[in-house]
Structure formats: C-alpha cells, structure tokens
Amino acid sequence: MSGELTSENTDSIFDIINKAAAAYQGAIPANCYYEPYMPKEELRREMKSMTFFGWEEKGKLVGVMGFQPVKGVTLIRHAYVLPSYQRKGVGSKLLGHLKLVTKTKELLVGTWADATWAIDFYQKHGFRLMPNKDELLNMYWSIPQRQIEASVVLGITM
Fold it and tell me: Assuming Cys at both sites, which of 82, 109, 125, 138 could form a disulfide with 76, CB separation 3.0 to 4.6 Å?
C-alpha cells in the first residue's frame, strides 16, 4: 500500500487511469469514450474534490482508487489498476482499504452497464446492483445524461 496520494502523484495516476480505461473502448458508447479517457486537467479537478490512495508493487504505483463522501454516503471514484497487474488482487486490496477508512455506512460505485468485469468485481465483494440507479446518479454524481443512461450503480452497506 502506498497510502494517500497527492498532487506529486498526478502523472502516475494519469498513466494508470488512462492505460486501464482502454478496456472501456468498445464497451461503452463511442460518444462517452475519449483519448485520453481522463485528461490531466480533469484529473487535477477530481483530486481536489476527493481522496485518492494507491497500491504499490516493488516501489511502483500500480493501482489507484478515489473516494468521496457525499450527502451521507461514500462514493468510490476512479478505481483503476494497470492492465499487467489486473486479476492479481490489487483492486481487492484497494477496496479493502477503502472499506476500513470510510466513515459512512454505505458505499456506492457507478460504472458502465457494459463493463461486466467491473460489475462482477464489485458483486464478488458484496455489492449489489441498485434498482434506483438513475435517482442515485442524479443525486450523488454530476455526469451527463448519456452517461446516466449507460451506467449502473452498485452499493453495499457497511
């Protein structure tokens, strides 16, 4: 574990997010996928509104996860692992850490409906698909309507 990340880690976080997000190409609407998936300016804005922490392997940052307390719940934001480290427990370790540090009783995560690997990951960790996803996405996230249409929300009570 590398712990909480700061602006000094921006380049590494940017690299991890954009390399890992390549998996979304073709799985989400074309008008929602961009290169880079998350520009640095957007990442810098996001880093000001949430806490990021990371996982290191042999001194190299290989996975990141952000979280953001909002209106009594905690949102999991920007959970990504470098492709060569995926399916090796890094995401599980990041999620386990988040469960320890969150101070709310409910964790929510939004992801693309066609990103079945992400949905499977969260379900494996006890999350369930929320039936009121449109209401939740409008209440806790600031995303375009097209993204709301193509997304799901999963939640877990701690």
Answer: 109
